[in-house]
Each structure stands twice: as C-alpha cells, then as structure tokens.
Design goal:
The protein is mainly beta and about 220 residues long. About 15% of the residues lie in helices and about 40% in strands. The longest helix is centred in the N-terminal third of the chain and has 12 residues.
C-alpha cells in the first residue's frame, strides 16, 4: 500500500510527457489561455469552470467555455460555448484573461498594447440571469490612452441598469493642465445575451460616438 501510494504520487508529480497525451489533448492544451472556477449559478452545486482557449480557425480570437463542476455533474453538457468572444495574440497585444468580479459576476479582460499609440482595455461583465436567459453581458468598460498627446477616454456602461458614464481628458496646450469632460446617459437596460457578443464588436451606444470624437481630436 505504501509503495503504491509513493508510485502514484511520483506519477502525478512527474512532468506530463508528450507521448502521454491523446491527439485531441495535444491539440487543445497549447490553445488554453486562462481558466477560472467561480460560482456563477447559485442553483448548481460547486463552482462553474470557465476556460478561455484560442479559436482553432481564427487564433487571433478566443473562445469562452463554461462548464458545471465536473465533480458534481460528471459528463454534463457545457452551459455555454461562445466563439470569438475576445481578441487574442501578439498582433493585438496581451492575451485575454478571466477575473472573478463582485456579486458573482465574471470579468473578461482584453488588452491591446501592440498597435501604436492607442493602448486600450476592454472588460465585459458576464452574469448568469436565469434559466430562460442564461448568461448575459451586463456590464462593459472601455478605456484608451494616447501616449503622444497624453489624452484618454473611458466609458463605463452598466448594461443591466442602463447607465453610461463617459470621461475624456486632454492636456490644454496653453495651460498644460488636464481638462476632464464628463457625460452621463440613462438608457433602457440592455442585457445582451452572451452568445451575441463578438471580439471586435463596436462599442455600444454613446460609447462608440464618444470614442469616435476622442480619436478625431487626436490627429
């Protein structure tokens, strides 16, 4: 018994050799970007397993897979598989990442740093609503900063509540002081079904208009 335990421990601690992988496993593992286990659905036991993988057809994008806890629901069907929900790859900057948000939400972060003077960050807040609706994007955050002009723009959209807060800031060339402009909007709540979101989707509502104005003033 003792020897068996030692052998098992050694096997688990040993590096996984390539020949130990099946062909599907060998293909999938390099595509895994991030993984997180958090409790998104109160009605289920355990936490939901969330995994980001590079899309097999468009590796500059990432797919999101949400599974129930395999310990309590072995062999269960995925709760959600969303294709090309985030951008990925060196061309677009950093790989996307997962984060546990407040109040049982999932945050999906995408950061672009590799395309010149406008680095930007996009975050989706993903929430499980109910059995009929399933998962939805209930919050959206976008921010960009122009290094050359020291100007920036942010948009925070509480899609579940319908409130948008935008800020743009620039440097006054005469006073060299930062000038901040704020705008607020109240819209009809828009809980976008998660499967409708795509990696390169336009910023929703006034965010897109405010972003266009910001970029137009930087050139």
């Amino acid at each position: 018994m003792h020897r068996t335990f030692l052998a098992l421990s050694f096997a688990l601690a040993s590096p996984l050799a390539a020949q130990d992988l099946t062909a599907p496993e060998a293909d999938l593992l390099p595509r895994v970007i991030d993984s997180l286990c958090i409790d998104l659905v109160e009605a289920h036991n355990g936490c939901e397993q969330i995994t980001l993988i590079a899309n097999s057809q468009e590796p500059d994008t990432a797919d999101l897979i949400i599974l129930t806890d395999r310990r309590t629901d072995p062999g269960g069907e995925p709760l959600a598989v969303i294709r090309q929900i985030a951008f990925n790859g060196a061309m677009w900057g950093m790989s996307p990442s997962l984060e546990a948000g407040e109040d049982g939400t999932l945050l999906l972060n995408s950061e672009q740093t590799g395309m010149g003077r406008h680095p930007w960050l996009q975050t989706l807040e993903i929430t499980y609503l109910d059995a009929d609706t399933g998962f939805a994007v209930t919050g959206y955050h976008y921010t960009t900063y122009d290094r050359m002009s020291a100007a920036g723009f942010t948009c925070d959209f509480d899609m579940a509540g319908g409130h948008i807060h935008m800020e743009s800031y620039d440097i006054d060339p005469e006073t060299e002081q930062e000038v901040v402009t704020e705008e607020d909007f109240n819209l009809t709540p828009a809980r976008m079904p998660l499967h409708l979101w795509q990696a390169f989707q336009e910023s929703p509502g006034p965010c897109g208009d405010g972003l266009s104005r910001f970029f137009e003033t930087q050139f």
